């Protein structure tokens, strides 16, 4: 199978490209190699894989890259929450316009299969149950509550404490920052493309991905990379809020495998009708707190490092989000293979990518 991977030089995209090649697929990479992120072609990319160096918003370059392609695995995106209002145009331009350009050219080229990198952030907060009112959707947490150290969302109807639950793909979507809004827009565009072209599309909603080649400590890095950068510099990692916020940390090699399974599923008529988009959580199914990730990484470095719980917060962050991976297992045959302890131990010694100083197009 001939596969085009956009964002192929990035954290996740490079692992997908490598896995696809190792499984015998004919793979072509596509990446802008933005100078803020990459100093030329990364050494970890296989030498025998073609890499088209161009921006995903460049329609002519995309058109050429699609020649002879059977399926597109779209990873190119501006990642992270966004740190201020100045980031809004970039998220819209790179993630939304870039995806629209890619989909338009796929339609013109007759490429009818797509795997899209989506994200858990499209859900907003995770799933919560109230003892009186059942399943509820908390409103975004108020600044005054966060300043007072009241981090747990409360029932929007009675104000009482809530019980966390796992979130499934049929949950209402509630993006709460610029990045989240752009990822949901990508899903909507992919669904529209599928309807207009009779194509098949799968969106993979990644949860907290970690592993080799993560970018180093920047405002746009994942929390695991930020903690690791601190530890390797002999500094205790700083944990926001009270450290008890729950996430599902999933290893990047598992994410790459999920993508390869989804690539296969886009060609299977039994996995959803043509002209449709299906979305799946990509998660381990075993959540951990952010504090536990900090403690696990600090323990790997030794030296008496003890994570420091700061009570600080970022508006737009969600409190808990725990995923149900059942649909991905049932429909794609995906089950995460890397347990948390082993993954963190390997990650503590893994190669990270040099830090970026400004937001850029990443995989």
SSE topology:
Elements: E1 2-6, H1 11-22, E2 26-31, E3 50-53, H2 59-65, E4 71-74, E5 77-78, H3 88-109, E6 113-119, E7 127-130, E8 134-136, H4 143-147, E9 163-167, H5 178-197, E10 200-206, E11 208-210, H6 223-232, E12 238-239, E13 246-247, E14 249-251, H7 252-265, E15 276-282, E16 288-289, H8 290-301, E17 308-309, E18 322-323, H9 326-332, H10 340-347, E19 361-362
Parallel strand pairs: 1-2, 1-4, 2-3, 4-6, 6-10, 9-18, 10-15, 11-14, 12-17
Antiparallel strand pairs: 5-19, 7-8, 7-9, 13-16
Quickly describe the structure:
32% of the residues lie in helices and 20% in strands.
Low-confidence stretches: 356-363
Topology as H/E string?
Answer: EHEEHEEHEEEHEHEEHEEEHEEHEEHHE
- The average pLDDT score comes to 92
Helical stretch tally? 10
Percent of residues in helices comes to 25-40%
**Percent of residues in beta strands:** 15-25%
Strand order of the largest sheet: 3-2-1-4-6-10-15
Number of DSSP strands?
19
Name the quaternary structure.
Answer: single chain
Shape: globular
Radius of gyration: 20 Å
Search tags:
363 residues; alpha/beta; 7-stranded parallel sheet; 4-stranded mixed sheet; 10 helices; globular; disordered C terminus
């Amino acid at each position: 199978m001939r596969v085009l991977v956009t964002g192929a030089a990035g954290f996740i995209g490079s692992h997908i490209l490598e896995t696809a090649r190792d499984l015998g697929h004919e793979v072509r990479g596509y990446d802008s190699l933005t100078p803020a992120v990459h100093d030329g072609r990364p050494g970890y990319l296989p030498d025998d894989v073609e890499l088209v160096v161009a921006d995903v918003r460049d329609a002519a370059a995309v058109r050429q890259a699609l020649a002879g392609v059977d399926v597109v695995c779209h990873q190119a995106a501006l990642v992270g929450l966004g740190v201020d209002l100045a980031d809004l145009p970039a998220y819209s331009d790179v993630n939304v316009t870039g995806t629209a350009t890619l989909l338009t050219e796929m339609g013109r080229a007759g490429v009818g299969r797509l795997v899209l990198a989506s994200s858990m952030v499209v859900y907003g907060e995770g799933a919560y149950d109230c003892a009186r009112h059942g399943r509820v959707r908390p409103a975004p947490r108020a600044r005054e509550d966060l300043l007072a150290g009241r981090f747990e969302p409360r029932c929007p109807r009675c104000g009482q404490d809530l019980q966390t639950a796992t979130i499934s793909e049929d949950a209402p979507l509630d993006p709460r920052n610029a990045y989240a809004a752009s990822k949901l827009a990508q899903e909507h565009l992919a669904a529209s493309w599928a309807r207009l072209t009779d194509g098949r599309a799968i969106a993979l909603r990644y949860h907290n991905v970690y592993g080799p080649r993560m970018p180093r400590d920047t405002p746009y890095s994942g929390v695991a990379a930020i903690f690791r950068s601190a530890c390797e510099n002999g500094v205790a990692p700083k944990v926001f809020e009270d450290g008890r916020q729950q996430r599902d940390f999933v290893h990047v090699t598992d994410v790459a495998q999920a993508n390869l399974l989804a690539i296969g599923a886009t060609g299977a008529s039994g996995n959803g009708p043509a002209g449709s988009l299906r979305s799946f959580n990509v998660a381990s199914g075993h959540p951990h707190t952010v504090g536990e990730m900090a403690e696990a990484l600090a323990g790997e470095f030794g030296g008496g490092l003890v994570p420091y719980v700061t009570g600080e917060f970022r508006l737009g962050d969600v409190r808990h989000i725990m995923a149900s991976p059942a649909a991905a297992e049932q429909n794609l045959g995906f089950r995460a293979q890397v347990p948390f302890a082993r993954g963190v131990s390997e990650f503590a010694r893994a190669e990270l990518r040099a830090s970026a100083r400004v937001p850029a197009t990443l995989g």
